[in-house]
Design goal:
Elements lengths: L1 E3 L5 H15 L5 H18 L1 E7 L2 E9 L2 E7 L8 H12 L2 E7 L3 H9 L3 E7 L6 E8 L2
Antiparallel strand pairs: 1-2, 2-3, 3-4, 5-7, 6-7
């Protein structure tokens, strides 16, 4: 089930984001993710339009949008590769005509996931905070 984020979900979302970030971005110093926890909690999630996906009783992932920009899509490590990410992405695709996102070039599984879901690489950039290469990707409704 997908539902709108509630304020009391924040600690669960931060936990999912942090653990998934460590796993997906092993090419970035783990202290970087720790340094981002407060900003995620106080700034980024509250400023985004966020929806969570649950499996009956438990939040297993979330998607955060800032207008047409996909700011975050994270699934609990224990529930990855079971379609929850695709379900959240399709939820947003039904609501929008275009979605843009940035993904680290070294995060090959995420790049493949977005390509399989109709996103194309538009540009290669450098993330200023980590100095890592990333792709700007875009999906447009047909």
């Amino acid at each position: 089930m997908i539902r709108a984020y509630k304020e009391n979900d924040i600690d669960i979302l931060i936990d999912i984001w942090y653990k998934s970030s460590l796993q997906a971005h092993d090419f970035i110093y783990s202290g970087y993710w720790e340094s981002q926890i407060e900003e995620m909690k106080e700034k980024y999630i509250p400023m985004s339009e966020t929806h969570v996906i649950t499996n009956q009783t438990k939040i297993i992932g979330f998607i955060s949008m800032v207008e047409g920009y996909l700011a975050a899509l994270f699934i609990d490590v224990a529930y990855q590769n079971n379609g929850a990410g695709k379900e959240l992405l399709n939820f947003e695709k039904r609501r929008r005509n275009k979605i843009r996102l940035k993904v680290y070039k070294e995060n090959l599984s995420a790049v493949r996931f977005y390509e399989k879901n109709g996103f194309i690489i538009k540009e290669e950039l450098t993330d200023e905070q980590t100095n890592k290469q990333e792709y700007l990707m875009e999906w447009t409704k047909n």
